[in-house]
């Protein structure tokens, strides 16, 4: 098994990241996402680090002869949440996806350890969080093996439809 390296995503990665986000939504929640919306969302996150930061795990793969090519094998997105209780930031791990052929090979662990090291080295970061589907036992075991614990929260939401074209927030 070749070694992994982690890098920040670039604009050229957006189509692959959008494809993986759609695959993850289908695999974990049986939700079909609108491809154009997801691609626009990924682009928005890549160009604005205040919104999100995407990381990609790369693995060297043989090409022809002894030549190697570096291929993307997994990703995650980071967002931030301010905690007034602790006067610091939680980094949220979201949009985790590992390409099927590379699962159970330490890809998520490498991404997580990379994020954990960055978080520990960044002043004001108080910890890492993520949410996971209740029935996703494999993911939960992976997260526990990395030292994460169930925080005891349930996530509630109230979703909103975007305003119709031509209508603004002041309408």
From TrEMBL:
UniProt keyword annotation of Transferase present: yes
Q: Pfam families per the record?
A: Acetyltransf_1
The record's section on SUPFAM superfamilies has:
Acyl-CoA N-acyltransferases (Nat)
Query: Which residue numbers delimit the N-acetyltransferase domain?
Result: 4-171
Q: Does the keyword Acyltransferase apply?
A: yes
For this protein, the record's InterPro entries field holds:
Acyl_CoA_acyltransferase, Bact_Acetyltransf, GNAT_dom
Alphabetical list of Gene3D superfamilies matching this protein: 3.40.630.30
Key words, A-Z: Acyltransferase, Transferase
Write one Gene Ontology MF term.
Answer: acyltransferase activity, transferring groups other than amino-acyl groups
Report which superkingdom the organism of origin falls in: Bacteria
Please give the PANTHER family that the UniProt record associates with this protein. AMINOALKYLPHOSPHONATE N-ACETYLTRANSFERASE-RELATED, AMINOALKYLPHOSPHONATE N-ACETYLTRANSFERASE-RELATED-RELATED
Q: Supply the name of the protein.
A: GNAT family N-acetyltransferase
């Amino acid at each position: 098994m070749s070694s992994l390296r982690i890098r920040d995503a670039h604009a050229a990665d957006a189509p692959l990241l959008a494809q993986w986000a759609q695959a993850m939504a289908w695999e974990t929640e049986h939700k079909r996402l609108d491809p154009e919306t997801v691609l626009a969302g990924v682009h928005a996150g890549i160009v604005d680090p205040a919104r999100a930061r995407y990381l990609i795990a790369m693995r060297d793969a043989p090409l022809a002869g002894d030549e190697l090519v570096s291929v993307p094998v997994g990703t995650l997105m980071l967002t931030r949440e301010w905690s007034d209780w602790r006067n610091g930031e939680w980094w949220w791990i979201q949009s985790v996806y590992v390409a099927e052929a590379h699962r159970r090979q330490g890809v998520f662990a490498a991404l997580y350890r990379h994020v954990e090291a960055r978080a520990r080295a960044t002043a004001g970061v108080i910890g890492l969080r993520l949410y996971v589907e209740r029935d996703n036992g494999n993911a939960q075991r992976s997260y526990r093996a990395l030292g994460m614990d169930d925080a005891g929260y349930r996530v509630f939401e109230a979703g909103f439809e975007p305003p119709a074209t031509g209508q603004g927030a002041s309408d």
